[in-house]
Every structure is written in structure tokens, then in C-alpha cells.
Design a protein that fits this description.
With 430 residues, the protein is of the alpha+beta class. It is built from 16 helices and 12 strands.
């Protein structure tokens, strides 16, 4: 989650650190030299990055419980207090050359970010200091030290340090307006040395995922998942085995079966919906956002909400049991999944043995990406037009049987929670 999700404060800070050292190659050299001499020595680049790019630029808002006077200013009861640590870190009365990345400044002073030195409080201070600070402290240093020590870092040909944008994107967390990963596309970085085959045809997809499903049922495992042996216990990434089949059976029958989903409806409303609407990283929430965007661009479709009134009545809270009574709503969900699948290439498959598909020999250990985004836009009747009605005229579903429409995958590796996604996609849209 730290390396992939991109929303964690630690991962944001690590990205800022690497951006700063890439823009300042001399600092990178010093860090590498320090690591080669003494692994574990305090890395001042972390402090300097936290000064310039605090993970929470305004911290988490505080609330004033009673009227109080601060520096002759009366703060009223219930006022919201934002602590602008971003501005404190760039105050020219406190810091020499405040906008320059200069880790050496922390070699000359004993300022720390643990809440005692108020010129540097990226994690807050007092009773509401971030409780995860000790973990963040260790994690950031470990990640940055590992990246700097184990890899050679240099800018691509034609890319100068000043080309790296350092513009801030303010929010609850502070991110880069232009993430470092954008450089991969702009400057043609090679992302992988694995032989990769991309499937963009339903016919070929059926041969790969159904007729040769056993051969392609393994996963290409990202190196990050080897930490703590996560790949050995993940139902998504485990290789086919009796253990994997048992875990999958338990998930399918004890967690995501229609009967269990019905019985746990209230519990999931209390726990999961908050995560759905606030988290912003779940595939379902992404699909809901695309769905509402398409409906707003097509007012004629949203006007058909009269289906809701006719089927369940006015001023009634939408329940999961209502979804089967709403064919147009289900068609809207399907059409959104066709145009905007939550995983455009699904989770990568791995070929366990050499196999021939449509006259093409797929080598052993090749990575296979199924381009369901392209399949959903295969030229036929107005593929770029948002037209839910097409699913009212055809008996096609996304449960893995119709290979022109497999946004949740198919075969042994179909998303176990696709039934749950079908419920969750329809309810918020309703």
C-alpha cells in the first residue's frame, strides 16, 4: 500500500526526497558516501525535505473548545485552527536561504521534528502530535537509504535537474503537481525486463483466460510484495495450489457469496461505505466517479431516474435488494465498466509453460496483460458514446462469461469480490 497507493504521507515524503536529490546531484553523492561509510547514520536529507515539503502542510485541523487569547488575539470558541507548517519551514526569519535544498543546515544545529522545536513540526506537537511519527521516522530513512544505496540514480538523456518540477499540490497531504513517475512516459524509461504480451481482443482473451486458463493462472509478482512474504498469503498473487484454492473457496462462499452479502448488508453500510466515499483509492469509488461524470455529460440519461421512483417509490433509501428492480441503473453500471474498467489491464497473468495462442508462441514466464480497456472500445456501434441502452438490448454481463466485457477478469483469477462491486457500484449511483 505504501509503494502503490500514493496517498500515504510517508510515500509522498519519499517522492519529494528523491525529487530533491535528483535536482541536487551533489547531495545524492554525499548521501551515498555516508551510507557506504556508516549504514544507519542519520540522513539529514529527510529533515530538509520535511522542512520544505511537510506531508501535511496545514496539519490536521484543531478545534478551539473555549475562547482564549493568543498573542493578544481572541480565538472564539469552536474556531478551526490550521497550523501552516509549510510556511514555517520557509520563514526567512528562521531559516537561511529558506527555498534552497540544503541538508547541511541540520548538521550545524540540533533541531528535530519530534514536536519540541516549533520551527520544524511537520508531524505536529503536543497532545495531538502524529502517533505514527516513530514508524514514519524509521520507514522514511529506511526506504530512502535503500533506494540511494542499492540503485544508481541519474537523469535520463536530455533531462536537466531544473526540468524536474517542484510545484506543490496542496490538500490534506502535500503532493507533487507532476509526480516523478511522469518522467517514465516523457523520457522513455524502460519499466520492465519481463517479456510482456498484451491481449486486446476478446477472441484471444478467451483462448488465454478460458481455454488455456491453467497455463496462465499464475501471477507476475511485483518485488514490493516479497516484503514480509506477503505474496505467499495473498489470494490475488499466490500461485495455483491447494492452499490458494481453499482460500479462494472461503472468500467466495464465506465473504462474497450473495447470501453472505445479503446478511451483512447493515454491517457493511456502517463500515465499508465510509471507506468507499472517503478513501478515494478503491476501484468501486473510481467507477462511481466515472459513472457520475458520464451521467452529468449526458443529462438525458440522468433524467431516466424516474425508474427509481416507479420501482421503489419516492423518499426511500436505496437498499441492495432494490438493484434487481432497476434494469436501467444496472445498464448504466455496465456501460461505465465498459468505457472505464477499474483495472484497464487487469492484474498481470504469468505463463507457466510455453503455449501457442493464435499461432503466436508465448514463452514460459511471460507476463500477460489483458487490455480490457481496448476490448470495451473495440470499433462497433458507436463505441465511444455513453449508451447504457445497449445493455438493455443484449444479455451480456461482466461475470466472466462474455469475453467482450470482462472488467473484473474471468476464469480462475476473476475478481472474487465482483459480486460485491456490482452492489456497491449501483447503490451510490442511485
Amino acid at each position: 500500500d505504501l509503494l502503490v497507493a500514493g496517498i500515504d504521507t510517508t510515500s509522498s515524503t519519499v517522492e519529494w526526497i528523491m525529487a530533491e536529490v535528483l535536482r541536487n546531484p551533489d547531495k545524492l553523492v554525499k548521501s551515498r558516501k555516508e551510507l557506504s561509510q556508516t549504514v544507519g547514520k542519520y540522513v539529514t536529507v529527510v529533515k530538509e525535505t520535511l522542512r520544505l515539503h511537510p506531508p501535511g502542510p496545514l496539519l490536521v485541523p484543531h478545534k478551539c473548545d473555549e475562547m482564549v487569547s493568543i498573542s493578544s488575539f481572541n480565538v472564539p470558541k469552536n474556531a478551526q485552527i490550521l497550523v501552516n507548517v509549510w510556511a514555517m519551514g520557509r520563514d526567512p526569519t528562521i531559516w537561511e536561504n529558506p527555498t534552497i535544498f540544503m541538508p547541511e543546515r541540520f548538521l550545524k544545529c540540533e533541531v528535530d521534528f519530534k514536536g519540541h522545536d516549533f520551527e520544524l513540526i511537520p508531524y505536529g506537537a503536543g497532545k495531538r502530535i502524529c502517533p505514527g511519527l516513530p514508524l514514519a521516522h524509521r520507514t522514511m530513512h529506511l526506504i530512502v537509504a535503500s533506494l540511494v544505496h542499492n540503485f544508481e540514480w541519474k537523469l535520463a538523456d536530455g533531462l536537466m535537474p531544473e526540468h524536474i518540477s517542484m510545484k506543490d499540490q496542496f490538500g490534506l497531504t502535500l503532493k507533487k503537481v507532476q509526480p516523478l513517475r511522469n518522467l517514465w512516459t516523457s523520457y522513455d524509461f524502460k519499466l520492465s525486463s519481463i517479456t510482456t504480451i498484451i491481449i486486446s481482443s476478446p477472441q484471444v482473451g478467451k483462448q488465454v483466460l478460458h481455454e488455456n486458463g491453467q497455463v496462465f493462472s499464475s501471477r507476475t509478482i511485483p518485488h514490493s510484495l516479497h516484503a514480509l512474504d506477503h505474496h505467499k498469503y495473498s489470494v490475488v498473487f499466490m500461485p495455483p495450489s491447494p492452499k490458494w484454492r481453499n482460500l479462494r473457496r472461503v472468500c467466495a462462499t464465506k465473504i462474497f457469496s450473495p447470501q453472505v452479502l445479503d446478511s451483512t448488508q447493515i454491517l457493511r453500510q456502517q463500515i465499508a461505505i465510509l471507506d468507499l466515499l472517503v478513501g478515494g483509492i478503491d476501484t468501486t469509488s473510481n467507477t462511481v466517479e466515472w459513472m457520475m461524470a458520464e451521467l452529468l455529460r449526458n443529462p438525458g440519461k440522468i433524467d431516466k431516474r424516474k425508474e427509481l421512483s416507479q420501482a421503489i417509490g419516492k423518499d426511500v433509501t436505496i437498499e441492495e435488494s432494490h438493484i434487481l428492480k432497476l434494469p436501467f441503473l444496472r445498464a448504466v453500471v455496465k456501460e461505465t465498466l465498459r468505457l472505464h474498467p477499474p483495472g484497464p489491464f487487469l492484474v498481470p497473468h504469468k505463463c507457466d509453460e510455453m503455449v501457442t495462442i493464435y499461432g503466436f508462441k508465448v514463452p514460459k514466464n511471460a507476463q500477460v496483460l489483458v487490455n480490457v480497456w481496448a476490448m470495451g472500445r473495440d470499433p462497433r456501434e458507436n463505441p465511444e458514446v455513453f449508451k447504457p441502452e445497449r445493455f438493455l438490448e443484449r444479455e451480456i454481463d461482466f461475470k466472466g462469461h462474455d469475453f467482450e466485457f470482462i472488467p473484473c477478469g474471468t476464469g480462475n483469477r476473476i475478481a472474487i469480490s465482483s459480486q460485491n462491486n456490482a452492489f456497491n457500484g449501483g447503490i451510490p449511483c442511485s
